[in-house]
């Protein structure tokens, strides 16, 4: 059996589209799809965020939770405020919870981005029902492949070969 590490906690300064004190613990029992993005990232706007919104529309929210992580590691003044993120989320009709990655006082890379050792944005992260980090992908992800991976995580533990006998 393969051993997977627990997903690091999300270190956020604020959340949009979510209740107070929201985080991964609230999503335990569901597969979590996290899209890390920046507002000024062309790949995020053209592909990552529309794909995340498509996952929201394609899967049962009791089985799959989609969250965004706005992780600003450049152009902080232009995109690092809640007001800017609220306007962006409204404009792009993002309905899922979006965490604002907490800045690191010692440097430009936000804290959750560091904890996950992300290379940049867009980064897609998959966390299983038990809170284990199962996949992290930097760049564009093919939607059929993502759907298949999500579905395999949804089905994990629900059925086993013995069930079909």
Describe the fold and architecture.
With 165 residues, this protein is an alpha/beta fold. Helix content is 30%, strand content 21%. It contains five helices and six strands, in the order E-E-H-E-H-H-E-H-E-E-H. The protein has helices at 42-58, 76-79, 82-91, 111-115, 143-155, and strands at 12-16, 31-37, 64-70, 98-101, 123-127, 133-138. The protein is globular, with a radius of gyration of 16 Å.
The number of helical segments is 5
The poorly predicted ranges are 160-165
Number of strands: 6
Supply the helix-strand structural class: alpha/beta
Distance between the termini: 22 Å
Large-scale geometry? globular
Helical content (DSSP H or I, runs of 4+): 25-40%
Cα radius of gyration in angstroms: 16 Å
User: In what order do the strands lie side by side in the largest sheet?
Assistant: 1-4-3-2-5-6
β content, as a range?
15-25%
Mean pLDDT: 91
Largest sheet: 6 strands, mixed
The ordered string of helix (H) and strand (E) elements is EEHEHHEHEEH
